[in-house]
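Why do we bother with a discrete structure alphabet at all? Because it lets us treat a fold like text: something you can write down, compare, and reason about line by line. To make this less abstract, here is a complete entry for 26S proteasome non-ATPase regulatory subunit 12 A. Read it the way you would read a sentence in a foreign language you are learning: slowly, and without expecting to understand everything at once.
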Amino acid sequence: MGRIAGWVVLDWRVKLALAGFKPAGDVAGTKNAVIEIIKLCYEAWAWKTLNDQIVLLSRRRGQVKQAVTAMVQQAMHYIDDTPDTETRIELIKTLNSVSAGKEKKKPKEGDNVVEEAPSDIPSLLELKRIYYELMIRYYSHSNDYLEICRSYKSIYEIPSVKADPSQWIPVLRKICWYLVLSPHDPMQSSLLYSTLEDKNLSEIPKFSFLLKQVITMEAIQRTALWKTYSDEFENEKAMLGAWQAL
């Protein structure tokens, strides 16, 4: 893997030298170069190197936004080809982080100045949703209900989701379901209180009542719960495995 990484970096330098341009001065040339680099990583099936190069290229001083955008969009095509769930998650995390401009770090003395990655990449919100939906599947294997809940919460906070009741209502319902299923601890309690304070919860009053039962530590009886929430449950049969844990 180290040889591949070294070869890719060397190839990047050779391409820049042959092209005879500075990264900030030739948009088309820079886009072609960064896309070629990540293609080399992909074709070599070097997933860790691919992640490393995406971060490295996004950090280059003076790197043009169009080139980083093109790089992220190209790498998104590789998500479905990843060999396993862990690799897929790491690639999505890398793309999400670079797109959101989270790769900025404080330079040490003598280091080159690191510019923040662009935060206006059009695919960012789509990428976030893909990432958290994948995390939901990942945590479902271990029945980690709190992490599933937190993943739904992250989807819920996406502006395009919050602006559309047809999207946020089913997501908020799932947040409530998984809060009920989650073991009581400080994180669950914090999320429970913040959800109860959400004004949107008034649109699904039965779930508001359910969370209030949990907050007051009232015993939840299976029969009574089924009678109250059977209609909602029928609309979410994917929750069957979680429901049986009650």
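What the structure line is telling us, in plain words: The chain is about 65% helix and 0% strand. Confidence is low (pLDDT under 50) at residues 103-120, 240-246.
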